[in-house]
Design a protein that fits this description.
By secondary structure, the protein is mostly helical. The chain has one domain. The chain contains five helices and no strands.
């Protein structure tokens, strides 16, 4: 039996499949946006980890005057790493939920199933996860901005570093 003569395939019109593909396009564009966000988050994570490794490599003994500043910066970096990791986890889970919605759209269309409320709920859940991931990202950004301190002597008028 060929694929075209399969009883299920004969009941499904090409227009139905085209409509399902149209419905799936918006979530696919959303996935592209989430992928860009994940790429950026991974880059931020890499930079923070590199900075932490640099400080760890030059870590001073307890009696060194730079030691408290190093410990303080490592604590900030550790917090940033945790926030970025959580943002990555939430955004990735959101992307997986969107993928499940896209797959469910096709399965529902092909099998004639009607679980639109479940798919809508899953899509809302994906958006909640994405919002939470963005909130963790915002928290990491706020910590990063607050931790940047430019020495006063570099900001004095007329002097160049």
């Amino acid at each position: 039996m060929s694929a075209l003569s399969h009883p299920l395939m004969s009941e499904i019109a090409v227009s139905d499949i085209a409509h399902t593909i149209q419905l799936a396009l918006a979530p696919v564009f959303l996935l592209t946006g989430i992928a860009g966000l994940l790429n950026m988050l991974a880059g931020r994570l890499a930079r923070v980890v590199d900075r932490a490794r640099k400080i760890e490599g030059a870590f001073t003994p307890l009696d060194d005057p730079r030691h408290p500043d190093q410990v303080a910066e490592l604590r900030i970096l550790d917090r940033r790493i945790a926030l970025v990791n959580m943002a990555i986890l939430l955004c990735t889970t959101s992307a997986v939920a969107v993928c499940v919605v896209v797959a469910a759209l096709f399965v529902a269309s092909l099998a004639g199933l009607g679980f639109a409320r479940t798919m809508a709920g899953l899509f809302v859940f994906a958006m909640v996860l994405l919002i939470a991931g963005l909130c963790f990202f915002l928290g990491e950004i706020r910590i990063a901005v607050r931790s940047i301190r430019i020495r006063d002597e570099l900001l004095e008028r007329g002097e160049r570093p």
